[in-house]
From TrEMBL:
InterPro entries: 6-hairpin_glycosidase_sf (IPR008928), 6hp_glycosidase-like_sf (IPR012341), Glyco_hydro_37 (IPR001661), Glyco_hydro_37_CS (IPR018232)
GO BP: trehalose catabolic process
Keyword match Signal: yes
Segment forming the signal sequence: 1-24
Catalytic class of the enzyme: hydrolase
Identification of the protein by name: Trehalase
Length: 595
């Protein structure tokens, strides 16, 4: 009965609207406007996402509205009146309605050439191998493709967009990821600083400060549908990198209060008591499926019988997304307490993760240092104390003497999770251990690398050893983890771990280089089983770009560019051989350099 809704239909519709609006929180009305009713939850979002009009569910929630949210919602109600109550409109009709009322994704950006871009940053001179030098030069040039500047209209009419307005242009990961991502930015900013794009890096940091000011923390990415969860908190380490690179201590002093505010958010909203220690876990504050993966979340949750179970499932998915490792067997706990299973076994909120606690240790330590620059002794001492408390927690809850390494802790079964995850070694990255234990830890780590055969993979250290089909599992290898492993092993200041670090750096740069030569692209993830192979699996297509992969290569070339080469590198046979290989590599590359 188009155009003539009966009283009954009207009542039903009101009830339905009530259903969508009544329970739970979908976004924070203090930080998100009426656009949350379109992009974060409700009948419009559900109808469009379930119709599967685009291959990638993220496409729709990134499209700009042609009219304001209330007008759009009204137009949608009018559209739905053409169909029987309870029936779903045909896919073609939904697609047409969306095309009539939304703009294609990506219209919020304008052309931008960073004013601090330079074709030949000094890092190039440090790289002795000609092929690697060319590689670095190409990667430096890719920043131009990954830059995004918002049009003024986003600031003037934020309600028409899902994107969160920020003042300064950003470098994004690439592919489907058109907006800033929180933890990605750590490796992107390291790369930018090596490319001497200091203004761009500083602009991104200032964006983050304004975001903490507005939201109280940093969302997963720069869209309102990410605004109820964060990602591994690396803003403070980003600022530390910036301050160390530029020598600009004033920047540390002027930003320390905002960094402390973000740290306090993690302390108050993300911690639980475990064995008498305050430990951090991942979580999410919103109800319902992830708007950007709405259909996927409904599908994986379809076998749960009760609303509460489905809601729990959504929370676990979003908590895993907050970890940045979406998804991984790392977050599965099945009925037997092991890591086999699928997304219905996600128990992210019941797992104490190694890297998160080590990162918070790092945050507190840096914040203490910055308060020292400011001359605020009270806060300098306070944050040092926080860092010591995290260190104690990491030792008591996460260090596992039997395994000889740090392990995630399962709060359901009250036991360590003795599975390999690259993050098991993450405390090495920020030196989250007592200095007196360094040598002991180096011995344990060497043993662990041998036991787990971490040195046997031609394409890099796998994320886990379990092949679940999820993208943060075997055989995928991710740049940020290769970076933290290499830096962590180097930090141990032990000849053996230093040799492994160098070998892994050689392998990683060489593999990325091979893939780049073959395809002309940098990838979001690579393959452990093949030097130069790139990864797959998970819930979306393989992405190219790619911000953090590029940043990591530049960082490794900055550290090892005088020794590693495009032609060498081998696999396996730790210790003696690795040391020998490193020496030979060094000699060969010096020879090459002098010829
Ligand atoms: C969507 O995916 C299908 C199957 O993978 C593919 O054939 C099609 O070209 C894709 N459509 C678009 C618009 O990318
Ligand atoms: C942190 O948790 C408190 C209390 O649970 C809540 O009121 C507040 O909104 C949360 N903060 C943020 C930024 O989500
Ligand atoms: C939902 O999750 C909470 C927290 O993990 C748990 O205590 C509760 O039993 C779960 N409820 C159901 C119905 O699964
Ligand atoms: C749990 O253990 C039982 C008994 O060994 C087995 O039959 C079952 O398949 C296991 N469940 C999972 C999810 O591994
Ligand atoms: C784990 O410890 C908690 C808190 O001490 C306790 O409530 C729970 O029953 C324990 N669970 C198991 C499986 O032992």
């Amino acid at each position: 009965m188009p155009g003539h809704p009966s009283m009954l239909l009207l009542t039903l519709r009101v009830l339905m609207l009530y259903h969508y609006q009544s329970h739970g929180t979908f976004y924070n009305p203090n930080t998100v406007g009426r656009n949350g009713e379109v992009y974060c939850h409700g009948r419009l979002l559900e109808t469009v996402q379930m119709a599967r009009i685009f291959n990638d569910s993220k496409t729709f929630v990134d499209m700009k509205m042609k009219q304001n949210p209330d007008a759009t919602l009204k137009l949608f109600d009018d559209f739905m009146e053409k169909y029987e109550q309870g029936s779903t409109p045909p896919k073609e009709d939904v697609l047409k309605w969306v095309e009539d009322n939304f703009e294609a994704r990506g219209t919020e950006f304008e052309q931008w050439i960073p004013d601090d871009f330079t074709k030949s940053p000094a890092i190039l001179n440090k790289i002795k191998d000609k092929d690697f030098r060319n590689f670095a030069e190409e990667l430096n040039g890719i920043w131009l493709e990954l830059g995004r500047k918002m049009k003024k209209d986003v600031a003037d009419n934020p309600e028409l967009y899902s994107i969160i307005h920020v003042e300064n242009p950003v470098i994004v990961p690439g592919g489907r990821f058109l907006e800033f991502y929180y933890w990605d930015s750590y490796w992107i900013i390291r790369g930018l600083l090596l490319s001497e794009m200091t203004n761009t890096a500083q602009g991104m940091l200032k964006n983050f400060f304004s975001i903490v000011d507005r939201f109280g923390f940093i969302p997963n990415g720069g869209r309102i549908y990410y605004s109820m969860r964060s990602q591994p908190p690396l803003l403070t380490p980003m600022v530390k990198t910036f301050v160390d690179t530029t020598g600009n201590k004033q920047f540390a002093i002027s930003s320390v209060d905002i960094l402390a505010r973000e740290f306090d958010y993690w302390m108050t909203n993300h911690t639980v008591m475990v064995k008498g220690h305050r430990m951090a876990i991942y979580g999410d504050q919103s109800s319902g499926p992830r708007p950007e993966s709405y259909r996927e979340d409904i599908e994986t949750g379809k076998d749960f019988k009760t609303e509460q179970e489905r809601e729990n499932h959504s929370s676990e998915l979003k908590a895993a997304a907050e970890s940045g490792m979406d998804f991984s067997s790392r977050w599965f706990i099945n009925e037997n307490g092991t890591n086999e299973g699928d997304l219905t076994n996600l128990k992210t909120r019941s797992i104490v993760p190694v890297e998160l606690n080590a990162i918070l240790y790092w945050n507190a330590k840096i914040i203490s240092e910055f308060y020292g620059y400011k001359g605020d002794t009270l806060k300098q001492v306070l944050y040092l104390k926080y860092s010591e408390e995290f260190l104690k927690g990491v030792e008591a809850v996460l260090w596992n003497e039997e395994a000889g390494i740090w392990l995630d802790y399962d709060m359901i079964n009250n036991k360590s999770r003795n599975y390999f995850v690259a993050t098991n070694l993450s405390p090495l990255w920020m030196r989250c251990y007592l200095p007196a234990r360094r040598q002991l830890i180096a011995n344990h780590v060497i043993k662990y690398i041998e036991e787990q055969k971490l040195d046997d993979y031609p394409g890099g250290v796998p994320t886990t050893m379990l092949q679940s089909g999820e993208q943060w599992d075997w055989p995928n290898v991710w740049a940020p983890f290769q970076h933290l492993l290499i830096v962590g092993l180097d930090n141990l200041d032990d000849d053996r771990t230093k040799a492994v670090a160098q070998e892994w750096a050689q392998r990683w740069v060489q593999g990325n280089h091979i893939a780049f030569i073959e395809t002309g692209a940098m990838f979001e993830k690579y393959l452990a089983t093949e030097l130069g192979g790139h990864g797959g699996g998970g819930e979306y297509e393989v992405q190219k770009g790619f911000g953090w992969s590029n940043g990591v290569i530049l960082d490794l070339l900055d550290r090892y560019g005088s020794t590693i080469t495009a032609a060498s590198g081998k696999v396996g046979k730790l210790s003696v051989y690795t040391g020998l290989a490193a020496i030979i590599t060094t000699m060969l590359s010096s020879v090459r350099w002098f010829l």
